[in-house]
């Protein structure tokens, strides 16, 4: 009986030892309840917040890219458009944004937007595409000589939307009548007549490149389409936020 009792105690110690081992390994205890300790919550840095728009700008520029556009679309889609900065050296040389660039920025934005508690369902980071937005005079300088579509803030001759070839004022050897001597010119045809619209950057509400084929050295549609890269992070839901900064 003593021996049997001793065996029983020994077995009891063994059982307790096995349970302790299971607990250390995180194996579910009898009854289906996990004994793994709760995961430590991810620490989010504290400090003054930038606001989600400012956070996006700081993140994109901090990664060495230009922020072109931020759009909040339907069904929680947050679309970010970026471009490479002319003259900057990147690990992989390319005239256009690469999908690896978009993926890199996507990873950084997911973390930044988590810190800002921004509510979104999907995050898409993409290249500007063929109808790239021109948002600064530096963009005008970069794409001078290419076809653009302008939307003016105030109508001129009864219309706001104009399309033609963008040129710097004063660059033309023989400026046609109506050409501006300061600011910018837009050259277009009205019937068979060459005409020009002189304007200042401050008068433009929106300007975009017009998709064309092999125009002034631009790529054909097939080649350019390959550069229209995007990285999408599905189900990238963070804590509730607002549209405000």
Walk me through what this model shows:
- A five-stranded antiparallel beta sheet has the order 7-6-5-4-8, with no helix packed on it. Strands 1-2-3-9 form a four-stranded mixed beta sheet, covered by helices on one side.
- The protein is 27% helix and 27% strand.
- It has five helices and nine strands.
- Helix 2 packs antiparallel against helix 3 (99-115).
- Among the domains are: 52-129 and 228-233, 2-Layer Sandwich (GMP Synthetase, Chain A, domain 3); 137-211, SH3 type barrels, CATH 2.30.30.
- With 245 residues, the protein is an alpha+beta fold.
Helix/strand layout:
Elements: H1 2-25, H2 52-62, E1 65-72, E2 77-84, H3 99-115, E3 122-126, H4 137-142, E4 147-156, E5 159-168, E6 184-190, E7 193-199, E8 204-209, H5 221-227, E9 230-233
Describe this structure in a few short sentences.
27% of the residues lie in helices and 27% in strands. It is α+β, with helices and mostly antiparallel strands and 245 residues long.
Radius of gyration: 30 Å
**Percentage of β-strand residues:** 25-35%
How far apart the termini lie comes to 78 Å
The main sheet comes to: 5 strands, antiparallel
Shape: elongated
| Helicity range | 25-40%
Average of the residue pLDDT scores: 75
Q: CATH class of one domain, anyone?
A: Alpha Beta
CATH topology of one domain: GMP Synthetase, Chain A, domain 3
**Mind telling me which CATH architecture of one domain this is?**
2-Layer Sandwich
Sequence stretches where pLDDT stays below 50 over 5 or more residues: 1-36, 42-47, 218-227, 235-245
CATH homologous superfamily identity of one domain: RimP-like superfamily, N-terminal
What's the count of strands?
Answer: 9
Determine the structural class based on helices, strands and strand pairing.
alpha+beta
């Amino acid at each position: 009986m003593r021996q049997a009792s001793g065996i029983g105690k020994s077995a009891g110690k063994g059982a307790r030892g096995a349970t302790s081992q299971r607990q250390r390994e995180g194996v579910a205890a009898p009854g289906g309840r996990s004994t793994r300790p709760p995961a430590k919550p991810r620490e989010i840095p504290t400090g003054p917040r930038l606001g989600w728009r400012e956070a996006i700008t700081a993140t994109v520029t901090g990664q060495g890219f230009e922020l072109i556009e931020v759009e909040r679309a339907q069904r929680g889609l947050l679309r970010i458009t970026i471009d490479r900065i002319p003259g900057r050296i990147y690990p992989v040389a390319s005239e256009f944004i690469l999908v690896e660039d978009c993926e890199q920025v996507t990873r950084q934005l997911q973390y930044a937007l988590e810190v800002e508690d921004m509510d979104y369902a999907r995050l898409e980071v993409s290249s500007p595409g063929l109808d790239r937005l021109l948002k600064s005079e530096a963009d005008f300088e970069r794409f001078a000589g290419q076809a653009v579509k302008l939307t003016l803030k105030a109508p001129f001759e009864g219309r706001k939307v104009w399309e033609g070839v963008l040129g710097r004022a004063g660059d033309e050897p023989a400026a046609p009548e109506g050409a501006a001597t300061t600011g910018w010119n837009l050259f277009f045809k009205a019937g068979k007549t060459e005409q020009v619209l002189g304007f200042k950057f401050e008068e433009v509400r929106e300007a975009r490149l017009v998709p064309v084929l092999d125009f002034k050295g631009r790529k054909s549609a097939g080649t350019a389409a390959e550069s229209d890269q995007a990285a999408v992070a599905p189900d990238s839901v963070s804590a509730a936020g607002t549209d405000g900064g």
